[in-house]
């Protein structure tokens, strides 16, 4: 095979990689800058910039100031800038709630996830938390957190959206796809520095997707107030384990009744639940994002005669 053909093949791979990233974030109406695009790619900044310039020349990608977009319209760039500014303003609130959550019984680490973890906060967005608990206490911990939200926050999830918990017993994320890789890579650790480091070391598969991505750092140890240690002591052993099993059973039964029209396949993805994990995504966000991504990839492959691989 000639050198020219090898180079052409390599460039195609880079272009496919860059477009898949831009298509993914375009579904959130979120243009990216060069550093962000490169961090979600497998190539160096020079190669990324070169192919982005080519895509701009071909009018497949458009650039507005520092941002690259698939739309020849600056509106999404302005939307992003406003959301970035809002995120900076709301992060103080997120920090206060994170510290508060870290003091709850059986919480071992608190991370920010969702849109805020990507530096964006829309008017209708919530602050999402990814929480790590001690083993065999996920469901008890989740129940306590939800009860607090219902009683003291009048069930508002604006600043207190508890949608994903795992235990220190099983830190490896089971679902390994572009969606989970992006969500994991962008986690912002708030409290529980040592546990977060263990989480990263258990999920090095993310680097298969994004070898250039630099994970966020955190130096904040977990607070250990006396009341937290007292409650954990009182609920240790078989007492706490039985309560955890009970909380798991009533939660899963409630979910099955409330979302009985959802297929079993979608239900298991949206409400992943075991002794080591609890996920609550009633809109089945992950599946919808992947489906929307693949639909748009097909459109680009057809319109521009490309071969961008679909996401599994």
Topology:
Layout: H1 3-26, E1 32-33, H2 34-39, H3 45-57, E2 62-64, E3 67-69, H4 75-102, E4 107-113, E5 128-133, H5 138-152, E6 161-167, H6 178-185, E7 188-191, H7 193-201, H8 206-209, H9 226-234, H10 237-258, H11 264-270, E8 273-274, E9 277-279, H12 285-304
Parallel strand pairs: 5-6
Antiparallel strand pairs: 1-3, 2-3, 4-5, 4-7, 6-9, 8-9
- Helix-strand makeup class: alpha+beta
Q: What's the total count of β strands?
A: 9
User: What is the number of independent domains?
Assistant: 2
Helix and strand element order: HEHHEEHEEHEHEHHHHHEEH
Overall pLDDT: 91
Strand arrangement across the biggest beta sheet: 7-4-5-6-9-8
Structural Rg: 21 Å
If helices are DSSP runs of H or I spanning 4 or more residues, what is the number of helices?
A: 12
Query: Which of globular, elongated, flat, extended, rod-shaped describes the shape?
Result: elongated
The end-to-end span amounts to 30 Å
Largest beta-sheet characterization = 6 strands, mixed
